[in-house]
Each structure stands twice: as C-alpha cells, then as structure tokens.
Amino acid sequence: MKDKTILITGANDGIGRATAEQLAGRGAHLVLACRDDTKGQRVAKEIMETTGNHNVDTLPLDLADFASVKAASEEFLAEHPKLDVLINNAGVYTDRLELTTDGYELQFGVNHLGHFLLTLNLLPAIQCCRHCTRVINVASAIHKKGVLDFTNLRGEKKSYNGTEAYAQSKLANVLFTMELDRRYGQDMTTNCLHPGLVGTRLANKKAGALTSAVWSMYKPFATRPEQGAATSVYLATNPEVRDVSGRYFDERQCLQKPSAIARNEQLARRLWEYSEQAVADFRL
Ligand SMILES: NC(=O)c1ccc[n+]([C@@H]2O[C@H](COP(=O)([O-])OP(=O)(O)OC[C@H]3O[C@@H](n4cnc5c(N)ncnc54)[C@H](OP(=O)(O)O)[C@@H]3O)[C@@H](O)[C@H]2O)c1
C-alpha cells in the first residue's frame, strides 16, 4: 500500500482509528479526517510511533456542518492530486433530537449527508479508473430495520426515536453505495459493510444515560475495534475485491444481501436527488 493515499473519516476513535492503524502498518499514506483536529493530531502521532509510518496527516472535518465539509474537501484537493481509498467511517448515535448546522436531523446529517457531500466533492481526486480507486462506506446490519421518511429528515415530527433515526441513516449508507456504483462504476468501486457488534464508545457519547449504560453492558460481548476494522481493511486492500462493486459485506468479509428496501433503485435515486439538493450550495 506504499503509494496509496487513504482518507478515513472519524479516524480518531473506535473502528476508524483501528482501521487507520492497520493501514498505516501496511505503509499507506493516511489522512485522518476528524471533527476535533487536536484529537486527530494526537492519534496521528500515536499511530506514527506504533507503526513507524510517518506518512500520517490530519484534516479537520465536521460532518455536521456542510461548510466544514467543503473546506476539508478544498484542503484535501489542494494538497493531494489523487485519492486511492476513501473510507466513510465516521458515525454518531443519539437518542435525543438534534440538528446539524444546516438543519438536518443529526444522524442522517452526519452519517449520510456529510459523507455524501465529501464523496462528491472529492470526485476530482477519486475519478481515476475502476481498478485503482475504492470507496468504502461503513454501514450497519441495522439498516434492515431502516425506513426513509422524507417528511422528517429535518426533525419535523415532534416524537424522536434514536434507534429508528440511526437505522434510517445506515439504510441511507447502503442506498448511497448502490447508487454511487450505478453512477460512477466506471471510475471506482464502491462497497459498504457491517463491522459487527464492536465495543466502541459510539453510544456512550451523545446518547442518554440509560442507552449509554445498556451499550456498556453489551461491550464485554462485542468484538474489539481491531476486529471491527477487518472488513474495512479487506475492502481497502485485498486484490480479491478489485473488481467487486455495489455490494454489502459482513464482519467476516462475506457478501450479504442488503434489505429489499436498500436494493430499491427508485428509492436510491430519490435519496440521491434529495441529498444533491440539500448540499447544492456546498458542492465544489
Ligand atoms: N460499534 C458498532 O457496533 C457498530 C456497528 C455497526 C456499525 N458501526 C458504524 O461504525 C462506524 C464507526 O463507529 P464506532 O463504533 O467506531 O464509533 P466511535 O468510536 O464513536 O467512532 C465514531 C467516529 O466518528 C466521529 N464523528 C462523530 N461525529 C462526527 C462529525 N460530526 N464529524 C466528523 N466525525 C464525527 C467520532 O469523532 P469523536 O470521537 O470526536 O466523536 C469518531 O471518530 C460508524 O459509522 C458506525 O455507525 C458501528
């Protein structure tokens, strides 16, 4: 992976950090795109120390703010002519209704819209050839419980169910993967994955005390972030998947069928068009 440039979102913690460590160990040039740049720099330093790979940069990126996504895209494109692997890994879970800076429900805004904008803005560096560029979206098996409610993506309805909103955002990750493959399949491969139940702090950060406590109870039964990174690393590096695109993989690197809704082409098109309109003012 020595000549490969890899951008990972949410690389300061959990699965993203473990993915970054493993890819740095294989000699890739890494760009850690993190909401808190101080945390990003600290982790970059630690990864450089543990792997001996000094080719680890950071990029400030707040996916809850389209202006930040645009600025990060501009900064990346100014410094890097090509991007070999984009890993859209960052994610948030919350059980209280919060909105992004641009007024979208937080989980849909961060987990889907921010990554949608980032990916489209980075196309000039991504579009190369199908065999040399890979886009990887970290989705979740919970997408199977997801339903897209276009009337509630700005938190219009008063009642809020965090798990439903999370499942909706992860369904959007899978639909985006399939539609990106249909639209740009000549230029790159695009796949998504479920990393397994992984003992990170995902539901300890913004969720309420009860959800956070339940999440902590599950942790002893969950896999470690190093194992949770396995499918992202596989999709980023393995020659076996050089020509595989528009697919959904599980934590054992096996192909799985996403839910029927996630395979609905009409819905994927509608989500793409909605997302395009949402981010229009911030496209490069
Ligand atoms: N853990 C699981 O069991 C599991 C299962 C299925 C899917 N996933 C998916 O795996 C991915 C990684 O999650 P994880 O479990 O590793 O959780 P995590 O340890 O909390 O990592 C999430 C990362 O996303 C970052 N992030 C959150 N909001 C952001 C924003 N507005 N802008 C930029 N970055 C932001 C976090 O930054 P901060 O540290 O600054 O908050 C952190 O670096 C997510 O997409 C998640 O949905 C996880």
From TrEMBL:
Coiled-coil parts of chain: none
What SUPFAM superfamilies does the annotation carry?
NAD(P)-binding Rossmann-fold domains
Q: Which domain of life is it from?
A: Bacteria
Keywords carried by this UniProt record: Oxidoreductase
Entry's Pfam families? adh_short
Q: Which InterPro entries match?
A: NAD(P)-bd_dom_sf, SDR_fam
Family to which this protein belongs:
Belongs to the short-chain dehydrogenases/reductases (SDR) family.
Stated name of the protein: NAD(P)-dependent dehydrogenase (Short-subunit alcohol dehydrogenase family)
Organism expressing this protein natively: Neolewinella antarctica
Tell me the lineage of the source organism.
Bacteria, Pseudomonadati, Bacteroidota, Saprospiria, Saprospirales
